[in-house]
Amino acid sequence: MKKLLLLLVPLILFTSAYAKEIEKPSQEKINQRLDKLEKPLFTPFVENYILNDLKQLREDNKKLKVELYKRLAEKEVEISTNTINYATSTINNIFYIIAAASSLLVIIGLNSIRDVNQKIRTIVDEKVSKVIDDYEKRMSLIEKDLDKRSKQVLQNQKEIEKTNTIHSLWIRAAQETTPSGKIEIYDDILKIKPSDAEALTYKAEAALELDEANWALHLANQALNIDDDYPNAFYQKAKANAVLGYSDFAINDLEKALMLNEQYIEEIENEEEFDSLNDNKKYIALIKKYKQDSETNQ
Asked: CA angle, corner 266, sides to 240 and 288, nearest 5?
């Protein structure tokens, strides 16, 4: 390593000295050339030339803009003139067409503008008359429909009033404790609605409470004539027949009542009117059958 360093140090010193020797002649050459110069390498006239060119370019650009604006103004004037000429020509053509059409109409048979106006008025009158007739027909239909609807509204109001009155009478009947008082209320209901099968049936029940079995039977038959599937009417008829001694009729009516409403099986044992049927085999079998069905359903 030491040997290598000893060799490198002289080599470096030699290289530095050689470089200095090379630089000296170069610097001397430069100085000689500077001494031989008779005029400067550049002149200020070059800068002046560039400035003049820039000024000329600005002036040319300005002239170009002026020329452009002038051309645009001329074009706008030309376009406006062409538009006015076109509009004038169009209007003239329209007038010529109108004049030609008027002349043609006169030649065909319409002698004057008055005839044309009269014809137009006639057509307009016919159209207006037709429109008025259609309007009157529609208004008539609307009036008939309104009259029909007003009658329906009045009828509905009467029905509502009637229903409210009947409802209030039923509430009074439920609060009434005497059979005769109930019958009077049921009569009021039947005056409003004679075909009320329910009122006739409850009136029959009240008649049975007054020991009027024949009357009750008649009222129950009236109710069934109105509604032949009303179970309570069959039930009240069965009670009336049982009181009158018509056992077979009573059992048949009772069976029909139970077929329509099985819940009557729970009330039969508490009804005194059916006491006369306790020994009847058909009655016993009927009660047993529906009791078994009731227990099975439970």
From this structure: 90
Say if residue 205's pLDDT is above 60.
Answer: yes
| Distant-in-sequence, close-in-space partners of 14: CB < 8 Å, separation ≥ 6 | none
Q: Are 239 and 245 in contact (CB under 8 A)?
A: no
Q: Is there a contact between 182 and 202 (Cβ–Cβ < 8 Å)?
A: yes
- Residue 192, number of CB atoms within 10 A of its CB: 14
Check if the beta carbon of residue 277 is closer than 8 Å to that of residue 250.
yes
With 0-12 / 13-18 / 19 or more C-beta atoms within 10 angstroms meaning exposed / middle / buried, residue 254 is buried
DSSP structural state of residue 195: T
Question: Do 293 and 268 form a contact (C-beta atoms < 8 A)?
Answer: no
Average per-residue pLDDT in the chain? 77
CA 176, 192, 260: angle at the middle one, nearest 5? 70
pLDDT, tens only, 37-74: 555 554 555 556 566 767 777 787 778 877 887 787 77
35 vs 161, which has greater pLDDT?
161
Written as one letter, the residue type at 56 is Q
pTM of the model: 0.51
% of the chain exceeding 70 in pLDDT = 73
